[in-house]
Amino acid sequence: MDYLPIFINIKNQPCLIVGGGAVAARKADLFIKSGAIVTVIAPKLGNEMKFHLSHGHIVWHMAEFETELIAEMPKPKLVICATDDQAVNLTVYHTFKALEVPVNVADQTEYCDFILPAIIDRAPMTIAVSTGGRSPVLARIMKARLEMLIPHGFSRLTELVGAYRQKVKDAIADLDGRKAFWEATLSGLFIDKVVHGSQQEAEHILDEALEQVKTQGQSIPQGEVYLIGAGPGDPDLMTFKGLRLLQQADVVLYDRLVAPEIIDMARREAERIYVGKKDKWHKLPQQDINQLMVDLAKEGKRVARLKGGDPYIFGRGAEEAELLVKHKVPFEVVPGITAAAGCSAYAGFPLTHREFSQSVVLVTGHQQAGAKGVDYARLAQSGDTMVFYMGIKNAPQIQAGLLEHGMNPNTPAAIIENGTRANQKTTVTTLGELAMTIEKQTIKPPSLLVVGEVIRVRERLLNPQALSESEKQFYAQESA
Ligand code: SAH
């Protein structure tokens, strides 16, 4: 390391800035935020520095820097010099060097006793990044990356944890016990509760854990469940939040539609349990999956329930959530990219378009016994883009239902197999030939059916080589 990274307390301490321009003002801003009493020596001030002056944040000495000037001033704790005049810069440097006051001459590491890092400000949490003066731009790029990773709510999190520090000290006498308490708390859903604003819930979790320590001598790790939407197939379509929660899970429950690459992203030690329905060796009814989830959480485990697409779109996520509520298991639902959004984008057409379709409807092609059937009359008249999930088997009924209620048999229809995966296959046909097209080919699950004029946009967005011969013919006939 070229420099020792330290955080210096300069609250109510005199600090000096020489220079009144934009660079000097940015440095002054750091002093001000840290609570210093800031004096600026400069013959004139730029707009940024005038802003500090007008808010009473600085005291201004309207003058060129001269060594005599500082005789009447209290000795500063730190000095930053940012002027265009190298003679002034050097005078400042040597003057304060002689007084043993640390100096920083902006952008000249050879005249710096200290350097200022790029800062990710989640005060009271502060992250400082330095390249040892080699590349401020690289430090800023690194800062931008970290800004993305650390939600702004970390300020609140740090405040809250600080406020509970003494309480936890009072409740847990030994150091190891306190460490275990905080490690357990600060890795679970608690963080998400605070970061996303639910302060009350977060305090409740802390209070309960502390109460347990008081009554039972230790806090029993509280299990929790994350219902995570893993997207339609391409592992890159998982969300940051989904990944973050997946990586803190002790157990991962997944089904057939979840990409193996996503399951691999769980911790190596995490137990992985397949709960897919389409496997004759491991046929787990939905109730058993739900119960397993509750049981694992009650054992104190962190359970990630990975679901294809979005958990709340034909994913039974709400049924699982309901049971978790009933059993008082804390949980979080992480939305995912649903098959309709993923498959259409990767197939090269949108779901809505100003010229073709003002609305979109997601329909299940597979209905539970006793459920009210799909209203084909309404759909056929709607002008909606229709996306049928689980619709391949019932394609003949879907086709007949829509045609019967007056839909044009020439309306484009698309069958998308293995959407967003490397082996995605898109077949474009018409509503009138949909069932026949499916019958002629072996369609592999998972597959999605889309019906709507908006599919025509595919011709404009894909390069001609990506369109099949029959599809080219199809568009040619249509526009003829
Ligand atoms: N919750 C999921 C849907 C579960 S229902 C979501 O939001 O996407 C399962 C149906 O989704 C499948 O029968 C199929 O119609 C559709 N599906 C899911 N992933 C798909 C994919 N990669 N390609 C095509 N269809 C898919």
Automatic annotation (TrEMBL):
Q: Where does NAD(+) bind?
A: A22, V23, P43, K44
Domain Tetrapyrrole methylase: start-end pairs = 225-435
**Segments forming domain Sirohaem synthase dimerisation:** 155-210
Q: What residues make up the catalytic site?
A: D255 (proton acceptor), K277 (proton donor)
Q: Where is this region: Uroporphyrinogen-III C-methyltransferase?
A: 223-480
Q: Which GO terms describe its molecular function?
A: NAD binding; precorrin-2 dehydrogenase activity; sirohydrochlorin ferrochelatase activity; uroporphyrin-III C-methyltransferase activity
SUPFAM superfamilies referenced in this protein's UniProt entry, alphabetically:
NAD(P)-binding Rossmann-fold domains, Siroheme synthase middle domains-like, Tetrapyrrole methylase
Pfam families tied to this protein? CysG_dimeriser, NAD_binding_7, Sirohm_synth_M, TP_methylase
Q: Which reaction does it catalyse?
A: siroheme + 2 H(+) = sirohydrochlorin + Fe(2+); precorrin-2 + NAD(+) = sirohydrochlorin + NADH + 2 H(+); uroporphyrinogen III + 2 S-adenosyl-L-methionine = precorrin-2 + 2 S-adenosyl-L-homocysteine + H(+)
Precorrin-2 dehydrogenase / sirohydrochlorin ferrochelatase: where is this region? 1-206
Biological process (GO) annotations held by this record are:
cobalamin biosynthetic process; methylation; siroheme biosynthetic process
Query: What positions does the entry give for S-adenosyl-L-methionine binding?
Result: P232, G308, G309, D310, I313, T338, A339, M390, G419
Q: Give the keywords, sorted.
A: Cobalamin biosynthesis, Lyase, Methyltransferase, Multifunctional enzyme, NAD, Oxidoreductase, Porphyrin biosynthesis, S-adenosyl-L-methionine, Transferase
> Which segments constitute the Siroheme synthase central domain?
124-147
Q: Give the family this protein belongs to, as stated in its UniProt record.
A: Belongs to the precorrin methyltransferase family. In the C-terminal section; belongs to the precorrin methyltransferase family.
Give the matching PANTHER family: S-ADENOSYL-L-METHIONINE-DEPENDENT UROPORPHYRINOGEN III METHYLTRANSFERASE, CHLOROPLASTIC, SIROHEME SYNTHASE-RELATED
| NCBIfam families xrefs | cobA_cysG_Cterm, cysG_Nterm, PRK06136.1, PRK10637.1
Q: What is this protein called?
A: Siroheme synthase
Please name the source species: Thiosulfativibrio zosterae
